[in-house]
Amino acid sequence: LRKEADAIEDPAAAAARGEFARDLQAALAKRPRQLSPKYFYDAAGSALFDRICELPEYYLTRCELGLLSAHAPEIAEHMGAEAEIIEFGAGSLAKIRLLLDALQGPGRYLPIDISGEHLAAAARRLQQDYPQLQIQPVVADYTKGLRLPPRLHRGTRRIGFFPGSTIGNLRPDEALRFLKQAAALLRGGALLLGADLIKAPAVLHAAYNDAQGVTAAFNLNLLVRANRELGTDFDPSGFAHSAFYNAGQQRIEMHLMSLRKQEVGVCGRRYEFVEGETLHTENSYKFTIDSLHELATHAGLRRGPVWTDKHRRFGLLWLDA
Ligand code: AVI
C-alpha cells in the first residue's frame, strides 16, 4: 500500500518528504540535535498552533490582534488604497481580516504559507467573507528565495505583513536574510512586522508551558508526523515537551526530551537517545524595539511608526522598504 501511495504522490509532496527525511537524519547525526521548526506545520500541527493562539497563557496573538484592531485605521492610511498585501507565513488568515476591514479594497492579497492544505482551506473561507477581494495563495517556504507573481499594475505598492513574531523562529542570520529579501521584494512599499518583546521570564515560560498541554502536543506532533510521513518508529510517549527561557540568548527554546535510553530508526539508520538527551525543535527569539530597528536598518528597511500595548508585551513596527 505504501508503495502504491508513493507511486501516485505528487512530485512537490515527494520532494518535501525527501527534504524532511534528510533534515531529520542530519539533525539526529549531529550534537546538539536541532531541527527546523518549519516541520511542526503539517495539517495537525497547524490546527494545534491555532489552538495555542487561543490559550490564556499565550498572550502573543491576543496582544497583536488588539494592536491591529486598535490601530487598523491608521495602518490602513499608511498602506494606502490599491496596495497589494503579501503575508509571509499566513497560517489561518485571521489577522489580515482586521486590516481588510479597515482598508478600502486592497488591490490583491497574496498569503504565503508552507502548509498548502491549511492555506487553501483558509483562503476559501476568507474569499467567502470578502467576495470582492482578489486572493492569490502562494505555497512556499518564504525563508528561501521567493518568487512572486508580477505586481498587479506597474507602480502598485506592495505591503508585506509578517505578524505573529514568526521572525523570532528564525536564526538571527536567517532573520536578517529574510528582511533583506523582503526589502527587495517590497521596494517602494513597506513591511508591517509583529514581534514579541522581552519581558518577565515567568510570563514567557507560561506561554510555552500551558496548563492544557496544547504546546506539548504541538511539539510532540513532530514525532507523530515523522512516523506517518517517513515511517520512523519514534515512541512519542518516550519523549517529553521541554520549554524554557534562555536569557543569555533572549529566546524560548523548545526541545523534545528523551525520557529513557532508546533507539529510533529513520530511513534505514538507527539513532540512540540517552535518557535526558533532547532534540531541539524551536527557538522563539524575543526582542526590544531597538533591537528590531537595528536588524531592520541592517536589512535596508527604514523605521516608521511603532505600535505597542501598555505593558509593552508585543510590538508592531512599520518599516518602509
Ligand atoms: C509561530 N511562532 C511565532 C510561535 C512562537 O511563539 O514562537 C510558535 C509556537 N511555539 C510554541 N508555541 C507557539
Automatic annotation (TrEMBL):
Superkingdom classification of source: Bacteria
A GO MF term: L-histidine N(alpha)-methyltransferase activity
Domain Histidine-specific methyltransferase SAM-dependent: 21-320
Enzyme class (EC, first level): transferase
EC number: 2.1.1.44
Gene Ontology BP terms: methylation
Keywords: Methyltransferase, Transferase
The protein, known as: L-histidine N(Alpha)-methyltransferase
Gene transcribed to yield this protein: egtD
